Amino acid sequence: MNVNPVLSVAKLLVKNRKLKLVLLGAQFGYLGYKILKKRKRKNGSVEAIKA
Asked: From CA 22, how far away is CA 40, in angstroms rounded?
């Protein structure tokens, strides 16, 4: 699964531990958003085929 490279680079460059955790949470949130978006698109196409 691809990860947003901007978040990865920012996480590597930041020295503050709390900010790293915030960026890590943003990265997981983005991945979750992509998974849900893909799932909705997949379910929507199946319903369109049945109709």
From this structure: 27
